[in-house]
Structure formats: C-alpha cells, structure tokens
Write a structure and sequence with these properties.
alpha/beta, six-stranded parallel beta sheet, 8 helices, 19% helix, glucose-1-phosphate adenylyltransferase activity, Glucose-1-phosphate adenylyltransferase, glycogen biosynthesis
Length: 386
C-alpha cells in the first residue's frame, strides 16, 4: 500500500430507527434523498472534493444495499489505484468476533486497515449527515494549531444543545471542556461528529479505551474526555455552512422539501463541491402529453402521465394518467396508479399506491409514510403504512 497523508473512516452502520419504515430493510446512510442521491453520497463526495482518496466505510446494520451501491467507488472517483473506498464490516478473528460495540470500537477493530496506509492523520466522519465540507481546510487548521485532535463544531439552538456533544473553547480555539449530551448545557457549541486525529494519538487512545472494561467505547462519551484528562491538545474547527442530521421522519421530509426552495441554504445545484451519486444508469425521464408538473425535482427513468406538484420523484418512479401527487417524496421505483391521490406522503422504494387510493391528508400537517415494497389499495388517512 502507498503511504497516505490522511485516511478517512466513514461510520455507516447506523440503523436510524427513528426513520421507521424507511430503515426497516436498509441502513440509514443508504436511504434515498433528494431524488437522485442516497444520504451517504454527501460524505463520500466531501472526501472526493477534499482530495482524500482512501476511505474505509464501516458497515453493520443490513448492509447489502449499501455495499452494492458503493461498489468500486468509481461514482465518486474513489477507485484510485493507490487508495480507494473499502467496505469494512465486523469480522471474526482467532480471538472470536463481534459486532462493533461503539464508534471507537469500530475504528479499533480496523487499526490494521489504517496501519496499511501509515497515515499521519485520520479523519472520522459519519455517513448519515447532509452537508458540504472541504475537509482539507480542517486538516490545514489542524496542522497550524498543532492539535492532537480537531473537532468540527457549529452553534446550535440552546434548546437543542442537550442532543449533542457540547464543548467550551478558549480564544485560541483550544477545547477546555467537553460534555456528551448534557442535561444542562453551559454552551451551545456542538460537535458535528467530525474528527481529525493525529494517527499515533488516536491509535494509543483506541488501545487504551479497548482495555477499559467500563467504557462504552464511544468517542463522545469516552475517548474525547480521556484525551482531555490526559492533557492532549484538542481544538475546535468552526463550520458555518449547512449541516443536518435527518434523524426523524419530520426532519427527513422537511430537509428534502427545502431543495424545492430556490432561496434555501442547502443548494445541490452549486458548481463547486458537487455531490456525486451512483444513480446515473437510467434513461431520461418522460413527461407525457397532458401531464402537469410544477415546482418539482424529477429524476432519470421516471414516467409521468398524471399531475405532480411541489414534490420530489426519485429515479424509475411511475405516475399513471389521472393520478395526482402533491407535497410528497417518492423514493426509487415507487408507483402511483391511475386515479390515485397522494398528499404529503413519503412513498417508499418500489411501493405501490393502487388505483383510486388516497394517501395522506390534504388539510393536515401529518406526514404519511408508506414502507418499501408495500402496496396501498384503499383510502388511507395519515399515519404510517408498513
């Protein structure tokens, strides 16, 4: 293996149980988003745009779709001869094998993979956040400050601070206090779960954490406080761009719908920091004579013969004549049969809304969810259908 200055480790094994039917059969990073993307596309694209060409993707929960989607990494220009993208599930050894026990344990179990590239720095990121970020700028600041660990941070609303790792930094951006999801936070400077480590420091910390039987083997709960107690130099890197964790149906729906607002801070049409995906193998979309499409994103392979308003249609979606879809998100392969009406609904992958069925409530604010591969035959008023 060729020595790399920086190796990225992408944590992509999360179930995302709060997304309900959307993650019943796939991991959260594999959930479709914004029509042509899957959530993991944003982190992989960030690596490409930051000139990081060696990425380990740590999978665990129902990884089949994620594994096949990533493939060789060519869609993100990560099929480098001297690096590349590697799917790293838990594996058995002579001492036995087990699932990843926490974020730190996931990296610990892949020390040999990182050592193969003998990096100076290791970037740890999550595969289930939506944002655009140039990690090379974070690495440059990490070098300049002489930090052992740099944590990317952003200010959050005070009422949300208890959901994050919260830190306090001095005027030189050095972290002096860190608390994981505190009940009474004394700061609203939140960790984004993006870490730039010196590899020697991280490796030593992982081994020490592994030997601690009382540890949860988690970066926020255990490793970061341990490094602070050891007097290591921890610094904060302030990020001012868009960042979102779509951890609930409500946040997933509204973040998708933001893409239809030309004034949204979350802009997928920018020429710089492009987001790449592995969904470019489909033919052009088709909008039939008499169909009406307003303020919507329509992806390749879709056939529209009915009406679509203020909605997002992923690839290979079918809307038959006489059907209407509004304020909704249709995931790959979804189908709406003739005469059906769909309001404020997330229609799962390869799900079917049958003839003359009604999904969602035109007047209410509730979001209806139809699970992957499910069929709705009759009128449905709100709620989830799995």
């Amino acid at each position: 293996m060729r020595k790399q200055e920086c190796v990225a480790m992408l944590l992509a094994g999360g179930q995302g149980s709060r997304l309900g039917a959307l993650t019943r059969n796939i991991a959260k990073p594999a959930v479709a988003f914004g029509g042509k993307y899957r959530i993991i596309d944003f982190s992989l694209s960030n690596c490409t745009n930051s000139n990081i060409n060696t990425v380990g993707v740590l999978t665990q929960y129902k990884p089949l779709l994620l594994n096949s989607y990533i493939g060789t990494g060519a869609a993100w220009d990560l099929d480098d001869a001297y690096g590349g993208v590697f799917v790293l599930p838990p594996y058995a050894t002579e001492a036995g094998g087990q699932w990843y026990q926490g974020t730190a344990d996931a990296i610990f179990q892949n020390i040999d993979f990182i050592d193969n590239y003998d990096p100076q720095y290791v970037l740890i990121i999550s595969g289930d956040h939506l944002y655009k970020m140039d990690y090379s700028l974070m690495l440059e600041e990490h070098k300049q400050t002489g930090a052992d660990l740099t944590i990317s941070v952003m200010k959050v609303a005070w009422e949300d601070a208890c959901r994050f790792g919260i830190l306090t930094a001095d005027e030189k951006h050095q972290i002096v206090k860190f608390s994981e999801k505190p009940k009474n936070p004394d700061s609203n400077l939140a960790s984004m779960g993006i870490y730039m480590f010196n590899w020697k420091v991280l490796k030593e910390a992982l081994i020490g954490d592994h030997q601690n039987s009382r540890s949860d083997h988690d970066f926020g709960k255990n490793v970061i406080p341990m490094l602070l107690n050891q007097g290591k130099r921890l610094c904060a890197y302030t990020f001012s761009g868009y960042w979102q964790d779509v951890g609930t149906i409500d946040s997933y729906y509204h973040t998708n719908m933001e893409l239809l607002n030309p004034q949204s801070q979350f802009n997928i049409f920018e020429e710089d920091m492009r987001i790449f995906s592995n969904s470019n193998i489909y033919p052009p979309h088709y909008i039939g004579r008499g169909a009406v499409v307003e303020n919507s994103l329509i992806c390749n392979g879709s056939r529209i013969l009915g009406d679509v308003k203020n909605s997002i249609l992923s690839f290979e979606v079918s809307i038959e004549a006489g059907a209407s879809v509004s304020d909704s998100i249709l995931l790959p392969g979804a189908s709406v049969k003739k005469g059906a009406q769909v309001f404020r609904t997330i229609v799962g992958e390869h799900a079917v809304v049958g003839e003359d069925a009604v999904c969602g409530n035109r007047k209410g604010q509730e979001i209806t969810v139809i699970g992957d591969n499910q069929t709705v035959f009759k009128q449905q008023e709100g709620g989830s259908h799995e």
